[in-house]
Structures are given as C-alpha cells and as structure tokens.
Amino acid sequence: MRMSVTDAKPARTLPPLLRLTDAAAERLRSLYARPGAKRYLRIGVRTRGCSGLSYDLSYTDEIGPNDEVVVDHDLTLLVDRRAALFLIGTVMDWRADALSSGFTFVNPNEKGRCGCGESFHV
After folding, report:
1. Which CATH class is domain 16-110?
2. Residue 92 in contact with residue 78, Cβ under 8 Å?
3. How far apart are CA 53 and CA 122, in angstroms?
4. Which of 1, 7, 17, 51 is the most exposed place for a label (fewest CB within 10 A)?
5. Residues contacting 82, CB < 8 A, separation 6+
6. pTM of the shown model
7. Alpha carbons 101 and 82: distance in angstroms, whole number
8. DSSP letter at 43?
9. Strands 67-72 and 120-121: what pairing?
10. Are 99 and 92 in contact (CB under 8 A)?
C-alpha cells in the first residue's frame, strides 16, 4: 500500500530548544550589559560528574558553525548543536539565595541526577 503526501501524519511540533524564565532573562540581560561583556552565552553539555553529563556555560562574541541560535525574551543565546538533543524543552532559570546563586535547568529529558545535583543523565 502506497501512502500519498496527504495520507501522511502531520509532523509533530517539537518544544522550543530552550526557554528562559523572567528571572533568567533579567540576570542574563544584566550580564550582557556589563562593560566588556561578551555578546552571547553558549550552553552545552559535557561528560562530567557521577551521573555522566553536566551543563557547560561559556561566553563568546562569535556565533560558531556548531551553534543553534535561540532568541527568548529578546535575548540571544547559543546552544552547542551537539547538546541540542539533550536540551530540547529545557527551561533555564536564575536562582539566588543566602548560600548560592546561579543558573538552573529544568530539563524534561533528564532521567536522573547525582546526589549533589552537579550532573545528570538522559
């Protein structure tokens, strides 16, 4: 049996690669506005920690050939293309309390995290 183009199921819409909370956008906007700051935050993953992967953040002025460009809250971020499948649907937040502050990630692809929260696995 042959399927025609009209018989094919419509493609499923993927969630955004990465989204920012209002708090993350505000913090990132302030970091980008600092004198001498780099233009983009690049997000990737690397092999590290007891669960296998950790988020890797770096700043750059250049969009590289392996970067996916994400625009949210009128801010531009870069996602390393090699990390894209691990990050689809992730929400990046900024949290600050009396003991620590930093970007956090709510990643629907995570299957588990190590006890200290430094690394994850999918």
Report:
1. mainly beta
2. no
3. 8
4. 1
5. 44, 45, 66
6. 0.79
7. 27
8. E
9. unpaired
10. no
Q: Would you call 122 exposed, middle or buried from its count of C-beta atoms within 10 A (0-12, 13-18, 19+)?
A: middle
Burial 65-95 (b: 16+ CB within 10 A, else e): eebbebebeebebbbbeebbebbbebbbbbe
Q: Which helix (H) or strand (E) holds 102?
A: strand 101-106
pLDDT tens per residue, the chain (122 residues)?
A: 555 556 667 676 767 899 999 999 999 999 999 999 999 999 998 886 665 788 899 999 999 999 999 999 999 999 999 999 889 999 999 998 888 889 989 888 776 665 555 656 56
d(CA 55, CA 45): 5
Nearest to 91 by CA among 40, 15, 13, 14: 15
Sheet bearing 101-106, strands edge to edge = 18-20, 90-96, 101-106
- Give the start-to-end residue ranges of the domains of the chain: 16-110
